[in-house]
Amino acid sequence: MKVVSLFSVVRGYNIPIIIVAQYLSAIFILAPGKSALSILLDYKLFIVVFASSITIASGYIINSFYDSKKDLINRPNKSMLDRLVSQNTKLRVYFLLNFIATLFAFLVSWRASLFFATYIFLIWLYSHKRKKYALFSNFIAAFLAVFPFFGILLYYYYRLPFNEIENHTNDLAVIFTHATFLFILLLVREMIKDLENIKGDLANGYETIPIAFGENISKISITALLLLTIIPVYFLVSVFDVGYMDIYFYVGFIIMIFFGIQLWQSDSKEQYLKLHNLLKFLIVAGVCCIVLIDPTVLWHGRKLLETI
């Protein structure tokens, strides 16, 4: 049961999704000029992805450490499961994972090690100061969620000469537009969590938008963010070439309209939880649909496997 508890604390069910998202991003978005096989066999990229994954896992541990009282109110069942592992054990695992991440990243370069050391510090700072300032913590949480993808971006582009970087301006524009769309969705997710967790946040003195300004202001802010997704979606569908992934953006736009309508009809924890899960589905579906940018990679991969 303690193993299950620790798995729950580090949210082990999220880690495989993060790994898949990073590799798919590398293959289809961050390094489209490289073959999929060369990316999968790149041991340095594997180290970067591995370091990202265990750093995120350690981040969940430190969040659980600081949010233990709040989670007793907001997520009593999960909280009781998480408490099967002592706080001391959680901290030991937390420091161990961070040490492994920085050590492995050093095998890539000292800059990679510094990158992950900075990431670890920012996660701790957010966990320590989270919910003390309305909206600011939401921005930081969304930023930290996309931060590992910038690590892969730097891995591929740092070693390029400046004149070659200029040749990849369009690729960088596509990357940052994808990142902007994901950032907005993650920001909306954080704000929905605030509506979902009002009781626990209020009891522990956390300052969130629904507590500081009211639920209506929070809903207006979320609606504005949903409308803001029109900008990156327009560029990804009409300006840049994203292959068949435009299907995801069209369907996703319909889902977001439904999401916005349901948001204004929701006023209970259960209803906000359903919206939260719908948004998680949209984000995970986006990860899976990255392959639609160039589906032929899958057929080439199948042919390769058939010849081995």
Task: Please render the helix and strand layout as text.
Layout: H1 2-9, H2 15-30, H3 36-40, H4 43-66, H5 68-74, H6 76-82, H7 87-108, H8 110-129, H9 136-157, H10 162-167, H11 169-196, H12 198-203, H13 209-212, H14 215-228, H15 230-239, H16 246-265, H17 269-288, H18 296-307
Helix pairs in contact: 2-4, 2-9, 4-7, 4-8, 4-9, 5-6, 7-8, 8-9, 9-11, 11-14, 11-15, 11-17, 14-16, 16-17
- Structure annotation, total helices: 18
Percent strand equals: under 5%
The biggest sheet amounts to: none
Mean pLDDT: 82
Kindly provide the radius of gyration, computed on alpha-carbon positions and rounded to a whole number of angstroms: 20 Å
- Strands, count: 0
Taking the alpha carbons of the first and last residues, their distance comes to: 41 Å
Sequence of secondary-structure elements: HHHHHHHHHHHHHHHHHH
Structural class: mainly alpha
Unreliable residue stretches? 302-308
Q: What coarse outline follows from CA principal-axis ratios?
A: globular
Q: Which range best describes the helical content: under 10%, 10-25%, 25-40%, 40-55%, 55-70% or over 70%?
A: over 70%
3D architecture notes:
There is one protein chain. By secondary structure, this protein is mainly alpha-helical. It has helices at 2-9, 15-30, 36-40, 43-66, 68-74, 76-82, 87-108, 110-129, 136-157, 162-167, 169-196, 198-203, 209-212, 215-228, 230-239, 246-265, 269-288, 296-307. Helix 4 (43-66) packs antiparallel against helix 7 (87-108) and helix 9 packs antiparallel against helix 11 (169-196). The termini are far apart.
